[in-house]
Amino acid sequence: MEQLTFGACVKKSWSSTWQAIVQMPGLLFGAGVVFACIALLSGSFHHTPAESAQLDAATRAGNGLMSAALSILQFVVSGCLTIKIHRFVLLGEGSQPLVPLGGKPLARYTLFSFCQGLLAALFALAVVLLVALVRRHTGSGLGFMAVMAVLLFVYGFVALRLSLLFPAIALGARLKPRAAWNDSRGHFWSMWAVSVASALPLLLLTVPFLILTIHHKIAADQQGSSGVSIGLALINALVTVLLVVLVAAALSWLYRRYADQLRDHVAQ
Fold this sequence. Notes:
single chain; mainly alpha; 10 helices; globular
């Protein structure tokens, strides 16, 4: 554990993001190109319900498989970029090797992310069941909102408490959720505040971008304009890369601030 204040964590997150951009431009540019291509290609396989009804079963299945393949590719690239940023901030490692430690961190990152996705699916199922139960007994929309708020908070609490695992995994540690849970005990609100404060400037820029994206995407679909789609894909790629780098940098500094038991597993 290092003695770092809230302000120091936020400032160092921004500083590390800038340093990563300056020192690893090729890595970030490559990731951005992949994200932009995925955004452009994925649009080809998304159809409105009316359009889907006109496609045969084989075409729909093929489109579904291609969409899944593109999603997996984006996940893998995001994982590689996240791991590289953690190692850059914590070890000073550059863009090489692209896949550190023989791919073990990426494999563990994938497994942990899958477990988080499974946890999210279980929470979603719990939401559906509890909402049905609340509506049956109360018929109130207020009860629905209360259930949603509680479950979202619980999921966010668990996910953030375990998020210290990501930097540890990038450094070569095995999956040790108990160690991450113990290291983050009593620090949830601090971790949440650092994460929000670090990402807030980019998020404030993203909101108008999302509004602009929806507006121009609708216009592009109506007019068949490819230029607008390409421009939006490029902007989307830029925002995605910056967000991945910023979040990974913030988590790295939170790891430096709070990791204790996790550090004992890094060398294993």
